[in-house]
């Protein structure tokens, strides 16, 4: 039962990050309730526009020995279709497959299912481990069903239902998470969201009700952003029943370059006995000239001198296969639609039917998502951003096109 609620809390922390437009690092692929899927989708729209998708990521230790590898395959919309995890075999020093995840999506790029396989070393084949199915409706509510493989069939073990409610400013106001193990009572997690007027500070407070028990505080999240709405600081606090107060738990700090790309990510844990934050991991991201991720370096915290070690304890190198990615550079020039602006109007000249028009800021924030209903142009006067933006057209044949435009 304890593991079940730890999974719920982990899912909730990822959900809070998603609601506040924060990307998080998920745990291993064996975590329940596909929290890793949620976190990987948070910034997918911006990633498809600005960066190629990696074909593989190889993780090295501090002396340069490769010990882990992840490979990726994508569908035509740039969604992850298959992810395979490999670990180093100490006997023959080769990379041995460990996990494989397969993902499917609906027409709106919402995740529909994930199937996780384990590699059977004896039979030399993939075997079922777990399956998650996700239902998403137009109001962004989700129902997630978790299955485990056993006795040659899928067995339902848990269900989670999530409902989001929005304010008139199109910001999430509250959410409810219903979690149930098979043949067990339902736990309900309620989260309320609060925002400062400048939009640079938000707080969410979660409480839980187990069966018929009274509501109890659970988790509080504070998020602070810069003027480009990049996350600067995130602080999670857990409710302490004995002290009847919030106790800090995890803190995250981020920095960005001139292109608003994340370059520094530091995480800390609260050490209650000393009343100080203790570093856990620092990650520095380096980019290639074309904007793709080149390398991520990891550093440990030296408690003895209360600072980060100057040498890295490991790093990831990203590799790209242009044939395996969907990006701006791979589009055919002959198939491009003509996109232009005149004042605050956006016009598209294209023979194919356009299914949706999305406009992003250069930092990756989604500014507009419209389904065109006429050829008279799209009025952009209500946008909160001006200057150079990114337009993404999605056509009814599932192809897409992106282009920079200038909005007056």
Short summary:
The chain has 408 residues and is mainly beta. Helix content is 8%, strand content 54%.
Question: What's the overall average pLDDT, rounded?
Answer: 79
Number of DSSP E strands: 27
Please describe the biggest sheet, giving its number of strands, its sense, and whether it closes into a barrel.
Answer: 18 strands, antiparallel, barrel
Task: Compute the separation of the termini in Å.
Answer: 56 Å
**SSE succession:** HHHEEEEEEEEEEEEEEEEEEEEEEEEEEE
- Hey, roughly how much beta strand do the residues contain? over 45%
The assigned structural class equals mainly beta
Determine Rg (CA atoms, Å). 23 Å
> Total helix count?
3
Instruction: List low-confidence stretches.
Output: 1-6, 21-51, 322-335
Describe this structure in words.
The chain is mainly beta. It has two domains: 2-327, no CATH class; 331-407, Penicillin-binding protein Tp47, domain D (Immunoglobulin-like). It contains three helices and 27 strands. It has helices spanning 2-19, 35-41, 44-50, and strands at 56-61, 66-74, 80-88, 95-105, 111-120, 125-136, 142-150, 153-166, 172-181, 186-195, 201-210, 216-225, 231-240, 245-256, 262-271, 276-287, 293-299, 301-302, 307-308, 314-319, 338-342, 345-349, 354-360, 366-370, 378-379, 387-395, 400-407. The strands form four sheets. The chain has an 18-stranded antiparallel barrel. Helix 1 packs parallel to helix 2 (35-41). The longest helix has 18 residues, at 2-19. The radius of gyration is 23 Å and the shape is globular. It starts with a helix and ends with a strand.
């Amino acid at each position: 039962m304890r593991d079940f609620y730890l999974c719920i809390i982990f899912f909730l922390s990822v959900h809070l990050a998603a609601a506040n437009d924060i990307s998080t690092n998920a745990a291993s692929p064996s975590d329940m309730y596909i929290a890793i899927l949620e976190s990987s989708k948070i910034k997918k729209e911006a990633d498809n526009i600005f960066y190629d998708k990696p074909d593989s990521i190889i993780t090295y230790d501090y002396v340069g020995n490769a010990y882990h590898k992840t490979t990726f395959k994508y569908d035509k919309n740039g969604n992850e279709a298959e992810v395979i995890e490999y670990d180093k075999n100490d006997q023959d020093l080769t990379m041995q497959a460990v996990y494989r995840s397969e993902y499917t999506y609906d027409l709106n790029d919402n995740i529909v299912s994930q199937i996780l396989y384990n590699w059977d070393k004896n039979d030399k084949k993939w075997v079922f481990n777990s399956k998650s199915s996700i239902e998403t409706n137009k109001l962004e509510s989700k129902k997630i069903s978790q299955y485990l493989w056993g006795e040659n069939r899928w067995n339902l073990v848990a269900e989670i239902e999530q409902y989001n409610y929005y304010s008139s400013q199109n910001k999430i106001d509250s959410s409810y998470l219903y979690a149930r193990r098979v043949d067990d009572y339902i736990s309900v997690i309620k989260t309320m969201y609060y925002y400062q007027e400048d939009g640079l500070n938000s707080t969410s407070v979660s409480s839980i009700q187990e069966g018929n028990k009274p509501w109890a505080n659970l988790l509080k999240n504070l998020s602070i952003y810069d003027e480009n709405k990049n996350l600067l600081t995130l602080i999670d606090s857990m409710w302490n029943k004995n002290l009847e107060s919030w106790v800090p738990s995890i803190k995250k700090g981020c920095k960005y370059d001139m292109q608003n790309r994340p370059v520094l990510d530091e995480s800390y844990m609260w050490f209650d006995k000393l009343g100080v934050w203790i570093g856990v991991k620092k990650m520095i991201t380096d980019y290639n000239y074309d904007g793709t991720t080149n390398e991520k370096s990891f550093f440990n915290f030296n408690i003895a001198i209360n600072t980060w070690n100057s040498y890295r304890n490991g790093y990831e190198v990203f590799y790209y296969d242009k044939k395996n990615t969907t990006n701006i550079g791979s589009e055919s020039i002959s198939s491009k639609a003509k996109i232009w602006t005149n004042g605050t109007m956006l016009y598209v000249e294209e023979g194919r039917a356009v299914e949706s028009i999305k406009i992003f800021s250069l930092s990756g924030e989604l500014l507009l998502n419209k389904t065109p209903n006429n050829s008279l142009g799209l009025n952009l006067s209500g946008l909160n951003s001006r200057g150079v933006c990114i337009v993404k057209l999605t056509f009814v044949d599932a192809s897409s096109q992106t282009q920079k435009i200038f909005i007056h």
